[in-house]
Amino acid sequence: MALRQLIGRRLPLPETGLLRATGRALRRSLFIQTENTPNPESLKFLPGKPVLDAGTAEFRSFRDAQASPLAKRLFQIDGVKSVFFAQEFITVTKDPAVAWSIIKPHVFSHVMDFYAEGGPVLDAAGTGASDTLITGDDSEVVAMIKELIETRVRPSVQEDGGDIVFKSFDEETGIVLLKLQGSCSGCPSSSVTLKSGIENMMMHYIPEVTAVEAVDESDDEDDARPAHPQPKAAAAKAAAGGGAAGGGAAGDGVAGDGASAAYAAQQAKADAQAALHSLGDQ
């Protein structure tokens, strides 16, 4: 009788424990690398997993970040000014007054926790059509501009952790308006690259283009943030050594905290020339 009762008893499945163990395993398997960008206040994070299926997304305030659960987490970190997502990387731009040694461990921890939980990077409302998607309403010139951005410009700037988004073309003045995103926004060399690289290329291939200008769509409204605690101390300590893996492996290419404005200005011309050379060779 006792044997029958033992066999017939329904044992509870350890679902909670299994989920926790799975989350810990995913967290340990995630290795986040970092890369410098031409902008000393922007750092490129590569989680080794897809970030977006297609396109890019930028968030310049906590209010903008409501469309992305991951961006909302990153904006909880004191000193984060903007968050940029591409297909394979995340670019975080910080306040110059806050050192990377303070921000970086919290970025590692938030990203690792997010991927361990398996949620979507963007809500359904946060996804939209690509800015370079050619539609039936586009003129021949606009279609050529979009194609040039997609094939010649975007691959180069995304290597530096940023992006260039097409906003409009004025048929009367010939002026193309572009939005700088990610590390390109606020970068010391961005204006040189925009004029010496992108503008010259567009004017060469598209005679109707007379100038290329950047449009600033920064949100001036109050950017109130909720009072959230920083990530767990243990997670921050695990990431404090540099690049983050669950076992404490170091990442690559961490931006130096002592990068000064003078050094950035000195490198601006070289960065712009390199970008122009890369664009021209493609």
From TrEMBL:
<protein>
    <recommendedName>
        <fullName>Scaffold protein Nfu/NifU N-terminal domain-containing protein</fullName>
    </recommendedName>
</protein>
<feature type="domain" description="Scaffold protein Nfu/NifU N-terminal">
    <location>
        <begin position="32"/>
        <end position="118"/>
    </location>
</feature>
<dbReference type="GO" id="GO:0016226">
    <property type="term" value="P:iron-sulfur cluster assembly"/>
</dbReference>
<dbReference type="Pfam" id="PF01106">
    <property type="entry name" value="NifU"/>
</dbReference>
<feature type="compositionally biased region" description="Acidic residues">
    <location>
        <begin position="214"/>
        <end position="223"/>
    </location>
</feature>
<dbReference type="GO" id="GO:0005506">
    <property type="term" value="F:iron ion binding"/>
</dbReference>
<dbReference type="Pfam" id="PF08712">
    <property type="entry name" value="Nfu_N"/>
</dbReference>
<feature type="compositionally biased region" description="Gly residues">
    <location>
        <begin position="240"/>
        <end position="251"/>
    </location>
</feature>
<dbReference type="GO" id="GO:0051536">
    <property type="term" value="F:iron-sulfur cluster binding"/>
</dbReference>
<feature type="region of interest" description="Disordered">
    <location>
        <begin position="214"/>
        <end position="251"/>
    </location>
</feature>
<dbReference type="InterPro" id="IPR036498">
    <property type="entry name" value="Nfu/NifU_N_sf"/>
</dbReference>
<comment type="similarity">
    <text>Belongs to the NifU family.</text>
</comment>
<dbReference type="GO" id="GO:0005739">
    <property type="term" value="C:mitochondrion"/>
</dbReference>
<dbReference type="InterPro" id="IPR014824">
    <property type="entry name" value="Nfu/NifU_N"/>
</dbReference>
<dbReference type="InterPro" id="IPR001075">
    <property type="entry name" value="NIF_FeS_clus_asmbl_NifU_C"/>
</dbReference>
<dbReference type="InterPro" id="IPR034904">
    <property type="entry name" value="FSCA_dom_sf"/>
</dbReference>
